Amino acid sequence: MIYNHCHRISISKTDTAKTKKTLIIASCLCLFFMIIEIIGGYLADSLAIMTDAAHLLTDFVSFLISLLSVYLASRPATKKYSFGWHRAEILGALVSVLFIWVVTGILVYLAILRVISEDYEIKATIMIITSAAGIFINLLIALVLHKHSHGHSHGLNHHHNDEENRLLVETRSYGSSKDLSVEEDLNQKKHKNINVKAAFIHVIGDILQSVGVLIAAYIIYFKPEYKIADPICTFIFSVFVFISTVTILRDIINVLMEGVPRSLKFSQVKELLNNVPGVKAIHNLRMWCLTTNKIALSVHLAVDQYSDPLKIMREATNILTNRFGPMEVTIQVEEYEENMNECVQCQDPKD
Questions:
Q1: pLDDT digits over 4-62, tens only?
Q2: What tens digit of pLDDT does each residue of 180-209 get?
Q3: 3, 334, 333, 332: which is closest to 166 by C-alpha?
Q4: Which of 182, 201, 225, 237 has CA 20 to 30 A from 327's CA?
Q5: Contact 74, 161 (CB under 8 A)
Q6: Contact 317, 331 (CB under 8 A)
Q7: Ranges for the Cation efflux protein transmembrane domain (predicted)?
């Protein structure tokens, strides 16, 4: 690998392009069949199919968010947005989740009215055709995503992005300030793109849901008096939609509140840094998420006056990145003072 100053010259964009292509194909297929299901659900007068379309909407949104994530990760930071545009995907995800909840809530309300009034008629034949097509389309989407994920995992030069594969480490000590770029040797087992993998798992859930709609359609076809199976499916699938979006909302809240990433623990990180030779105290340890898959960390390391600050900074950086993978790190090295133990600002945060 060739380096120029502190930045890489050669950056492979092959895998990023493949990821974009895969997600675009999956998005188009998802959007196409979502429209088909809306039409089919309307013609069949089936709320179950409409709810399945709402679940497809969550997939379509997740694909768009993944695409946005890949696109924004490649955009450089600006003087106004010094961390880049990563948080835009979080804001988009929040709006999407709220919209999906509104749509699902309306469908549940309509399903309740149907159960109460029983004044509806399901066209089972159209419902069967639509749900069967849903299984086929979802299998096709799963095949596209699985093919990318499988082939992607065997690559030798996977490129997450330049920001994620380097560390910005700032050392302020004895009047000096240095920026270092550290390239990590990533574990090849982690080369599957997380966006594609997550989308694949989501589509598997859609296939099971479409199978459920098909079963309900056959029940109504052979036993029209059991038409209540349609609103029942709506209730069940609405729960699936809620569960799938709640996990997204949990991540959104953690990012917006600048919570500690789930992959990091405060006590564990502090213990690792305390084990660096020459470090006598640690304070102002901060860990937060810039986005769901981009971590930032900053810390002050107080060292004795005879230690080499650059050596300590490098060793601390290596320990963090070898243990937790690529992240954006800022380390400030300063001379240890006895009064640090009494300083309120230097104490660990509460649990």
A1: 444 443 444 565 677 778 778 888 888 988 899 899 999 999 988 888 888 788 778 77
A2: 333 333 433 343 445 556 566 667 777 887
A3: 3
A4: 201
A5: yes
A6: yes
A7: 23-257
pTM attached to this predicted model: 0.68
- State how far Cα 72 lies from the chain centre: 13
Q: How wide is the angle at C-alpha 315 spanned by C-alphas 297 and 323, nearest 5°?
A: 55
State the Cα angle at 142 between 141 and 144, rounded to 5°.
Answer: 65
Q: What share of the chain is helix, strand, coil (3-state, %, to 5)?
A: 60, 15, 25
Q: How far apart are CA 65 and CA 90, in angstroms?
A: 8
272 is written with which tokens? 């690792």
Q: In this structure, which amino acid lies at residue 10? A: S
Residue type (1 letter), 34: M
What letter does residue 75 receive in the DSSP assignment?
Answer: S
Block residue for tokens 């089972």? 124
Domains and CATH numbers, the chain: 13-153+192-256 (1.20.1510), 266-346 (3.30.70.1350)
Are residues 279 and 294 in contact, defined by beta-carbon separation less than 8 angstroms?
Answer: no
To the nearest whole number, what is the mean pLDDT of the chain?
Answer: 77
Locus of tokens 């213990």 = 271
Report the alpha-carbon distance of residue 26 to residue 134 in Å, rounded: 14
Contact partners, residue 63, CB within 8 Å, separation at least 6: 23, 26, 27, 30, 199
Structure-block tokens of residue 188:
């090849």
Sign of CA dihedral 301, 307, 309, 314: negative
Which residue has 């104490």 as its token pair?
347
CA neighbours closer than 13 Å in the CB half-sphere of residue 156: 0
266: amino acid identity, one letter: F
Q: Cα(63)–Cα(199) distance, rounded to whole angstroms? A: 7
Which amino acid is residue 29, in one-letter code? Answer: L
How far is it, in rounded angstroms, from Cα 22 to Cα 141?
9
Q: What is the mean pLDDT of residues 160-170?
A: 37
